[in-house]
Amino acid sequence: MFIGHYGAAYAAKTVAPKAPLAAYFLAVQALDVLFSVFVLSGVEHMEIVHKYTSYNPYRLYDMPITHSLVGSLGWAVAVAILAAIVRLPRRESLWLGLAVFSHFILDLPVHTPDLTIAGNDTARLGLGLWNNVPLVLALELAMLLGGWLLFSRSKRSDATFPKQRNRIFLGVLVLLTIVTPFTPDPPSPASFAVQALVMYFALAWASAWSVGERLRSKT
């Protein structure tokens, strides 16, 4: 899953609004941000295999630190603690941690069995919906639109909320959802990692722009 994760970010922002939307956008992709960094540094590994699944060419055979059940729980706790250290409210700290862990939960239905319990020698999980592009697109869009609707309705009476920017950004996210399975294969794992990092941080910045927020917490 890619854009669908941002539905969880919108939902978390609705429940715990005092952290920036950009923070939630980064939190829901934190495991993939770390994975991209670890691919570049040779700590975790993947292969680009054309048509490995119908949705993408990624053979994700070695990512126990970021995408195992135990690893994702550990990163979620770490993010929640870090948020508390920088003095975000308790509710926001908790929901940032939950946003991190939501990535593992939402990956389960779409990944091939490459999500381990606690390392490469443990059971591997994944329902493999990446081999059904229409179903994955429907799931991604349902997650995104569901979270966005919750968030937008919570802002309905706020006259200062930039509704047009919010809708424009939603349109960009929907477009990205639709075109993702049809984009060319990256030439190498390193290229994938760089492209992914640029995309995650660009979308986090754009999410702040879309709601008129500065990249800092509200107090």
Describe the overall structure.
The chain is globular, with a radius of gyration of 17 Å. It has nine helices and four strands, in the order αααββαααββααα. The chain is mainly α. β3 and β4 (124-125) form a beta hairpin. It has one domain (5-208).
Question: Keywords, please?
Answer:
single chain; mainly alpha; 9 helices; 219 residues; two-stranded antiparallel sheet; 4 strands; 60% helix
Can you give me a brief rundown of this structure?
The protein has nine helices and four strands. A hairpin with a 7-residue loop joins β3 and β4.
- Quickly give the structural class: mainly alpha
Question: Percent of residues in helical segments?
Answer: 55-70%
Total number of β-strand segments?
4
What is the arithmetic mean of pLDDT?
96
Largest sheet: 2 strands, antiparallel
- Our Rg estimate from Cα atoms comes to 17 Å
Counted by DSSP, the helix tally is: 9
Q: Which H/E pattern describes the elements?
A: HHHEEHHHEEHHH
- The residue ranges in which pLDDT falls below 50 over 5 or more consecutive positions are none
Report the β-strand fraction as a percent range.
5-15%
Through-space gap between termini: 32 Å
Identify the overall geometry. Answer: globular
Number of domains: 1
Write out the strand line-up for the largest beta sheet, numbering strands in chain order: 1-2
Write the layout of secondary structure elements.
Elements: H1 5-15, H2 21-28, H3 30-41, E1 45-48, E2 58-62, H4 64-67, H5 69-85, H6 90-107, E3 115-116, E4 124-125, H7 133-154, H8 163-179, H9 189-211
Helix pairs in contact: 1-2, 1-6, 1-7, 2-6, 2-9, 3-9, 5-6, 7-8, 8-9
